[in-house]
Write a structure and sequence with these properties.
about 450 residues; alpha+beta; Double Stranded RNA Binding Domain; DNA polymerase, domain 1; hpI Integrase, Chain A; four-stranded antiparallel β-sheet; three-stranded antiparallel β-sheet; about 45% helix
Length: about 450
């Protein structure tokens, strides 16, 4: 049996197998044989636990493996590989350290520093990653592969709420989107040099019979729904005015100065003009929240501003960000003129009625509006789809629709193409006219 006094023995399979722990940790270096690796050593703990290490420099070493799971021959091959990479200028210690970086630490650290200023939806993507892959956040990023992701998929539909109630099944499309986000993160890990490679690409998310598919379809307002929405908006205007009058009367009875009474031609608040402009311009909610008066030209009937999502796509392609000019429909122009005639001191078209700063939420008002209008499964963003569908159904060509929707790719506009089947019939009629000549 060897012990800590056998420092100069030649490392062999027998030595690795039979050596025992002593009062202090000790090391046996691989030296003297034809196959030996001078930077390989076997470290033995007092408990008898053993491990092979590659010595990259003074105080710098990396764990290769532990006997008997790793044989001496395998350890020598690993040490030779590390020595070769080190000779090529690779910092093998840093490489191994990075390979142990967990997914959670990388998302919160290097990836977030990169994504925060470069990806428009970085906040939302980060929330999705931390929620969906919560069970993998403590795993070394480089080691997440097919087994881990198979387990992730299995568990994805078996999570419960904090009260123990089961959550709704997750649609296959949702899981695919989450996996796309994960791939983007680990790909950046490779691009940034944090890890040398990853195994996420080995996992393919294929459909099974048990999978739930999203039933969400492209949604827009029917003519009847639009009429109900406009009626609900007008009814809301009257309700808000009546409430304001009640509050003012109560303040007067208490001897308090009431706020100024809104002009009869002004909107009661921001909800009606905001909703109608979304439907009449196709602007996204964030672009409407950010809209400033110096971006509105009432004389020319235009909005000129940098569109958030479009500018992000241009930046990703290395192109300069440019102003987008959007012509205004007559009703949209009249709405903005009314707002301008009665605007306060804010530079924003839709300032928050509470803080006077940028709006950030109208969820409560929207929910009540949909209920009052008896409209189901309709999001604020679907007003944008309504704008596009009205254009297509009116016979506007898809490239013009693309420009008005500020789409960077015509493929994004083609989702509305099925709304205008008449152009196909017209093309057939033009190409194959009725032949009235009888044989």
């Amino acid at each position: 049996m060897t012990n800590q006094t056998d420092r100069k023995l030649r490392l062999s399979e027998e030595i690795a197998r039979t050596t025992r722990g002593s009062g202090k940790p000790y090391e046996i270096r691989d030296r003297g044989g034809k196959q030996s690796q001078p930077n390989l050593l076997l470290r033995v703990q007092p408990s008898g636990a053993k491990a092979y290490y590659f010595q990259a420099g003074r105080g710098r070493r990396i764990l290769l493996g532990k006997p008997p799971l790793m044989t001496l021959a395998q350890a020598r091959m690993a040490a030779a590989s590390a020595a070769g990479r080190s000779a090529d200028g690779v910092d093998v210690v840093a490489e191994v350290r990075n390979e142990r970086v967990t997914l959670g630490d990388f998302i919160e650290g290097d990836w977030w520093k990169y994504a925060e200023d470069r990806i428009a939806s970085a906040d939302r993507i980060k929330v999705v990653l931390l929620h969906s892959f919560a069970d993998l956040l403590g795993h070394p990023m480089a080691q997440i592969g097919k087994p881990e992701l198979e387990q992730w998929r299995k568990n994805r539909n078996h999570r419960t709420k904090t009260d123990g109630a089961p959550r709704k099944p997750v649609a296959l499309e949702t899981m695919r989107r989450e996996l796309t986000y994960l791939r983007a993160v680990v790909n950046y890990g490779v691009a940034s040099g944090t890890i040398s490679t990853h195994k996420v690409g080995d996992f393919l998310l294929t459909a099974t019979l048990a999978d739930k598919h999203t039933d969400q379809k492209l949604r827009w307002l029917t003519i009847e729904e639009e009429a109900r929405l406009r009626q609900a908006l007008e009814a809301r205007e009257q309700t808000v005015r009546a409430y304001q009058a009640t509050v003012n009367a109560a303040r007067q009875r208490r001897g308090l100065e009431p706020p100024p009474t809104p002009h009869p031609d002004a909107y009661a608040d921001h909800i009606k003009p905001l909703v109608l402009l979304a439907m009449l311009t196709g602007l996204r909610r964030g672009d409407l929240f950010d809209l400033q008066w110096d971006q509105v030209d009432l004389n020319l009937g235009q909005i000129r501003r940098v569109i958030g999502k479009t500018s992000h796509a241009r930046r990703k392609r290395g192109k300069p960000v440019t102003l987008t000019t959007l012509p205004l429909a007559p009703e949209a122009l009249q709405i903005l003129k009314t707002l301008r005639d009665h605007k306060g001191t804010s530079h924003l078209v839709f300032p928050s009625p509470v803080s006077g700063t940028r709006l950030d939420n109208i969820a409560n008002a929207w929910e009540h509006l949909m209920r009052d209008a008896s409209i189901e499964r309709f999001r604020f963003h679907d007003l944008r789809h309504t704008f596009a569908s009205r254009l297509v159904q009116a016979g506007v060509d898809l490239n013009t629709v693309r420009e008005l929707m500020t789409h960077t790719d015509i493929k994004m506009t083609l989702v509305y193409a099925h709304l205008s089947p008449d152009h196909k019939a017209a093309a057939l009629a033009k190409t194959f006219p009725l032949n009235m000549t009888a044989e």
